């Protein structure tokens, strides 16, 4: 049996918008709808990116930017079952009406950042913060920006420390030495490679 994505794509292809598009136009607009969905999940906004992508999409086609924007919007609705604005509003509404338990979840997730910075291969703060923020956003079904703000506020309320400053201190202690060692190792490998003598080519005589 076809999976949900295959069915959605097939239905959209047979829809009123899909039928008017070439294969490449359909594929590009379908991909752009996915990109905009990801952008809304991240920040809760889409207007500027939609304008930029619609302009780029229309530039190589025989329709204008407004038509390109309409196509992308309709592809988004076919892919996700609601308009971009409806999806954005749903995320924002959940952020506004989070239960108290969500703050406990946020504080718990904030404490997952330090092990990523300190353990294993280590991570810089920005990556660890983003990794945990995405996980919290998906769990609470809110924007990643909202999830990160929630982690910062609950961490400060509980510990009286700024999450960024506390995490950057760990980064300096644990991640920076690992990064510097790796950089030096790459530099040594490059130097060794440059210093290796190259064999002269010999031309065979007929």
Keywords:
10 helices; about 75% helix; globular; mainly alpha; single chain; about 210 residues
Number-wise, the strands total 0
- Taking all Cα atoms into account, the compactness measure Rg is 25 Å
Give the strand content.
under 5%
Mean of residue pLDDT values: 91
- Note the gap between the termini: 64 Å
Largest sheet: none
Verbal overview:
By secondary structure, this protein is mostly helical. The chain folds into two domains: 4-91; 98-181, no CATH class. The protein has helices at residues 4-13, 23-43, 47-59, 65-80, 84-96, 100-110, 113-118, 125-140, 144-159, 163-195. α2 packs parallel to α5.
In short:
The protein is mainly α and 206 residues long. It is built from 10 helices and no strands.
